[in-house]
Amino acid sequence: MLELKTPYLLFIGHATDPLSIKMAKSAADWSPEKCVGEVRSHGCTVTTGMPAMTIAEGIAAGARSLVLGFANSGGHLDEQWLPMIHEAIAAGLDIISGLHDRLNAYEELVNAAAQSNVRLLDIRHPTKRLKTGKGYRREGKRVLTVGTDCSVGKMYTSLSLTREMQRRGILATFRATGQSGILVAGEGIAVDCVVADFIAGAVEELAPANAANHWDIIEGQGSLFHPAFAGVSLGLLHGAQADALVVCHALGRSSMRAIDNRPLPSLTETIALNEQMARVTNPNAKVIGIAVNTSSVTAAEAQDYCRQVEQELGLPCVDPIRHGVAPLVDQLEEN
To answer: Quick one: DSSP state of residue 205?
Structure first.
């Protein structure tokens, strides 16, 4: 378990895309008791919903860590944020980053942190030695969320499933595979920073053999259909050895994220390919339901779409935020 000091002060910079602050938004949505506020820069047009604060105001409110809660293309640390990070370090805050660029690669930050006796935490980068995957059958039950695209709600669906299952008294554990999930759960492995040969092995270690009636809910990443992220998605499918898959989809998206003129695959295509790949390590793997982000349409349109999908595919279809995930958990209990 990572020792992440809370409460968090969430830094979102000058973000204008809601999806670009998913790390900060995840903490605010799923662990609001761990957050005191957000720090915004001039030009920022999105929010986590937390109160806007300066670093000094955040410390006065009890903050113990500054979270770099934004994600840009490539996960780079823009040097314009260094003065603000120095301010937080000097004020005694740990710095938590989910970027690909490592805070600990900046000598000036390392020296400043040492002088202030605070920590630089690069939670996206695994610190343990990992092994290659074997695909040997292991006890316990596992669910993996998969997607038609990246950023379609796999983490929110996984957390929703975990919460509903625990509410019912089912033994269930959320397994974080990205920096946002790690911030919420306090542990996990960000698989997009694992050397490709070790992705499946990392997931086997993250969700090891367990009691026969215990469910691991494994957060999915990327999509088998996305040219940039399919490798990570495939490693997750093989390492998870999932009994059940939940397909996640964003309604109304015209092209795959960050790629022009590339339509999303159909749900039927997504089900077929993910089941085929999952069965490499679990011959019985199957999709048990669909989770859709319907935020682009009205509540009535969302209901109509989900009912249409259910009729076409014979699987439950819900928006985890609008409808909850009870029908998906019902399917898991039946299988």
So the answer is: H
